[in-house]
């Protein structure tokens, strides 16, 4: 084994390009300790993608996965590669034809760059350029490299190079140990982003990448290896200094836009062109916290039953009154909703076009009750509304569309809404088709109401049913504001609409839910009822209370959280019919403090909160009640 | 009240991208009971299908009783909310979630038409708020954000 040799004494930073990206060629490390071919085993797990390197192999390739794609990747020699990879009659003929022309063994493609010798040279080159200690692969100025020159290979970026060389280099890089964290491709005159297409495939965990002083000109070039589709999710630092793409943007005073476009494409980036990116961060779980102490997810039941609308900390009539008026106006006089939005409000809509599994199994698309489902189309949602659907997970790289599809200001918001298909929300007629969760957030002057609505509407004029989710941030409308003057007690600060294929409102029907088929539904057994409730029950319905009624009371307690006294009242007023009682409860309930429900119209004592409920403060009620 | 610049919007979208990826990856991982509560604070308010939970502790107790999950995010959107600076963010996510072992975990005798075990459509809305007690730690960091409010429901 040859030992590692590093000439020069400069310390090399282990992860940041700033430190590591400037290693001179004479300082590069030579590492001949790896036996040729010794890493083939390690590459086996990547077998699901086309492997341009297959073309270099001197043994018969395994089952082909390289037909179309490899032909594209390898470009110049589609016939030879296809033939080599797929032992068919046609392939044999083609190979024979090739060997007849070149006089070489049939498995060896024609161009000199794809000989067996070539891959060995590339391997030697890649090893010579790897600093294992810094996990840094220095691929700068490849055209000047002695090894490459000697063998007359054509490196990526040089005239006459193809995608193949780049793919081979990245594949060899993927076999290096320890794993490559940093790659510098500086000073290679790379002008085609396509050359980098295979980079995220072979080096998916790359942390730092320099493309300094190349010739990349178009955003499209970056899209070949950007983070969309979960590529390069670990990339923290990128250098594009000295590429026309960047330099032109700065020259034209669009540096901020340039950084935004890059951020859009590489969301994990923290440093761009040696300057920190503006980022928002979270308490992301650290690798170290994922230790053995973790309790593995093993529950076979859900933590709670499905519950109806959750409205707390605010007079329910404020929420229901707002929603009833909002949807009615949205259906009938959309333009006049301008009054309900704050002058700086934000609005966007997005389409989730996926077909919901359960709805598909239930056959809603072909149901007789909804004859127009097949006539619904996504195009008015995907492209309509002055900017189109704002599904950020499907949005191609561009910053423009992302900005254009967010409508800022009441005028813009309503203009966009008016350009969307018409609707009929039957809020009044079928309340069970809607579900609301709402509670106050923030404090004092910043108090607002976090509101999330799920439901369905009939799309007009087609007449088909759609499901939707709509989330609002609402704030009390100040005296004298346009909203207040027009009778809106709350106004909209933010509004996000998601439109989906139709799913049944059964999804939020209150009651127990199963995880797997055949699981017992959570039982209403006496042992599960808290002791204090049992005691209460025995006091209130002692003596003459027959067993069936006792069981109904327990079920009501379990399903609604009502205490026994109210459960009995609720059942009595509904003729001891469980379903009617639950429904009635859902209609009138308001959640109060101390973990119990009380029936509607009972005010919450100011400043109370408890561990099971959400905090409810005096300011909440005062601010939101008018 | 200032109107958002395209840079504000882009930063918010990037944060949403990071957040949704991280959040659901963590949610579906073995260490979720320890890690998911880190996204919340004691003042956070959370509902899961209409049941309320309070703070990181509440979230932890919920996660401990949750069957294994597999989320697929099909759509998400994010706004900076007009008001404070740096702004709070509202993120809505639409996707599917499979619990337990999914359809494969149903007994062999399960009718083919049974919906149990099949993926559900979920809708989740988050309000992310900057944490004033955790000042920016790195250059370029606007603020550390946590989940102030989170409403999750099965909707299909």
From TrEMBL, chain A:
GO biological process per UniProt: poly(A)+ mRNA export from nucleus
Give start-end ranges for the coiled-coil region(s): none
GO cellular component terms, alphabetically, are: nucleus
InterPro entries per UniProt: LRR_dom_sf, NTF2-like_dom_sf, NTF2_dom, Nuclear_transport_factor_2_euk, NXF_fam, TAP_C_dom, UBA-like_sf
Record's keyword terms, sorted: Leucine-rich repeat, mRNA transport, Nucleus, Repeat, Transport
UniProt similarity note: Belongs to the NXF family.
Name the chain's protein: NTF2-like protein
Species this chain originates from: Heliocybe sulcata
UniProtKB/TrEMBL annotation, chain B:
Bias-annotated ranges (Polar residues): 107-116
Pfam families (UniProt xref): NTF2
Q: Where is the NTF2 domain?
A: 15-154
Identify the stretch(es) annotated as Disordered.
Answer: 97-116
Query: In terms of domain of life, where is this protein from?
Result: Eukaryota
Spell out the SUPFAM superfamilies in the cross-references. NTF2-like (SSF54427)
> What InterPro entries does the record point to?
NTF2, NTF2-like_dom_sf, NTF2_dom, Nuclear_transport_factor_2_euk
One GO term under biological process is: nucleocytoplasmic transport
Q: What PANTHER family does this protein map onto?
A: NUCLEAR TRANSPORT FACTOR 2
Q: What is this protein called?
A: NTF2-like protein
């Amino acid at each position: 084994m040859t030992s590692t040799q590093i000439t020069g004494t400069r310390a090399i930073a282990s992860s940041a390009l700033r430190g590591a990206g400037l290693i001179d060629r004479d300082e590069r490390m030579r590492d001949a300790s790896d036996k040729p071919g010794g890493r083939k085993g390690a590459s086996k797990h990547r077998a699901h993608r086309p492997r341009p390197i297959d073309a270099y192999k001197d043994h018969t390739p395994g089952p082909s996965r390289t037909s179309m794609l490899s032909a594209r990747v390898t470009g110049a020699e589609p016939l030879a590669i296809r033939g080599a990879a797929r032992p068919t009659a046609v392939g044999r003929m083609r190979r024979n034809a090739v060997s007849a022309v070149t006089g070489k063994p049939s498995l060896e493609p024609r161009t000199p760059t794809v000989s067996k010798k070539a891959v060995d040279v590339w391997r030697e080159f890649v090893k010579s350029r790897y600093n294992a200690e810094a996990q840094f692969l220095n691929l700068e100025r490849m055209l000047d490299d002695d090894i490459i020159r000697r063998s007359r290979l054509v490196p990526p970026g040089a005239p006459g190079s193809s995608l193949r060389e780049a793919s081979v280099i990245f594949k060899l890089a993927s076999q290096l140990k320890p794993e490559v964290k940093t790659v510098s491709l500086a000073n290679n005159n790379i002008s085609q982003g396509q050359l980098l297409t295979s980079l995220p495939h072979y080096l998916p965990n790359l942390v730092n990448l320099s493309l300094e002083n190349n010739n990349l000109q178009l955003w499209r070039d970056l899209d070949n290896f950007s983070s969309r589709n979960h590529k390069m999710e670990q990339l923290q630092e990128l250098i594009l200094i000295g590429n026309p793409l960047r330099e032109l943007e700065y020259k034209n005073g669009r540096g901020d836009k340039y950084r935004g476009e890059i951020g859009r494409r590489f969301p994990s980036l923290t440093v761009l062109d040696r300057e920190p990116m503006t980022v928002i961060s979270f308490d992301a779980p650290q690798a170290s916290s994922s230790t053995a102490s973790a309790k593995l997810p093993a529950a076979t039941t859900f933590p709670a039953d499905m519950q109806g609308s959750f409205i707390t900390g605010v007079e329910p009539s404020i929420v229901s009154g707002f929603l009833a008026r909002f949807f009615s106006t949205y259906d009938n006089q959309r333009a006049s909703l301008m009054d309900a939005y704050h002058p700086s409000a934000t609005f966007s809509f997005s389409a989730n076009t996926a077909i919901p599994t359960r709805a598909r199994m239930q056959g809603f698309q072909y149901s007789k009750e909804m004859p127009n489902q097949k006539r619904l189309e996504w195009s008015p949602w995907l492209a309509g509304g002055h900017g189109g659907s704002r599904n950020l997970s499907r949005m191609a790289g561009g910053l423009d569309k992302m900005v254009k599809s967010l409508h800022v200001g009441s005028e813009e918001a309503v203009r966009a809404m008016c350009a969307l298909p018409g609707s009929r929300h039957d809020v009044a007629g079928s309340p069970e088709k809607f579900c609301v969760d709402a509670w106050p957030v923030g404090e004092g002057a910043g108090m607002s109401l976090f509101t999330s609505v799920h439901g369905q509407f009939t799309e007009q004029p087609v007449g088909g049913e759609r499901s939707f989710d709509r989330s609002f941030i609402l704030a009390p409308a100040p005296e004298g504001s346009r909203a207040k003057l027009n009778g809106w007690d709350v106004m909209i600060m933010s509004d996000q609409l998601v439109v989906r294929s139709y799913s049944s409102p059964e999804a939020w029907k209150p009651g127990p839910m199963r995880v797997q088929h055949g699981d017992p539904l959570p039982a209403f057994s006496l042992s599960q009822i808290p002791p204090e409730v049992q005691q209460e029950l025995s006091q209130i319905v002692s003596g003459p209370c027959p067993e069936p009624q006792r069981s109904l009371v327990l079920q009501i307690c379990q399903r609604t959280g009502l205490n026994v006294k109210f459960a009995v009242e609720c059942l009595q007023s509904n003729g001891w019919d469980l379903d009617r009682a639950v429904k009635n409860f859902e209609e009138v309930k308001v959640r109060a403090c101390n973990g119990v429900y009380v029936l509607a119209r009972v005010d919450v004592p100011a400043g109370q909160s408890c561990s099971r409920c959400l905090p409810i403060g005096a300011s909440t009620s005062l601010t939101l009640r008018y | 009240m200032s109107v958002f610049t395209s840079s504000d919007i882009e930063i918010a979208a990037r944060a949403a991208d990071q957040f949704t990826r991280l959040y659901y990856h963590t949610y579906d991982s073995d260490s979720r009971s320890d890690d998911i509560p880190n996204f919340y604070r004691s003042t956070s308010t959370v509902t899961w299908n209409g049941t309320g939970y309070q703070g990181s502790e509440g979230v932890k107790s919920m996660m401990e009783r949750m069957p294994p999950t597999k989320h697929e995010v099909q759509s998400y959107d994010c706004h900076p909310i007009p008001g404070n600076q740096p702004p709070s963010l509202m993120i809505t996510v639409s996707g599917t979630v499979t619990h337990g072992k999914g359809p494969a975990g149903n007994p062999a005798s399960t009718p083919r038409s049974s919906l149990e075990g099949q993926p559900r459509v979920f809708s989740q809305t988050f309000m992310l708020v900057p944490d004033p007690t955790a000042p920016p730690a790195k250059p370029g960091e606007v603020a550390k954000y946590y989940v102030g409010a989170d409403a999750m429901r099965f909707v299909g």
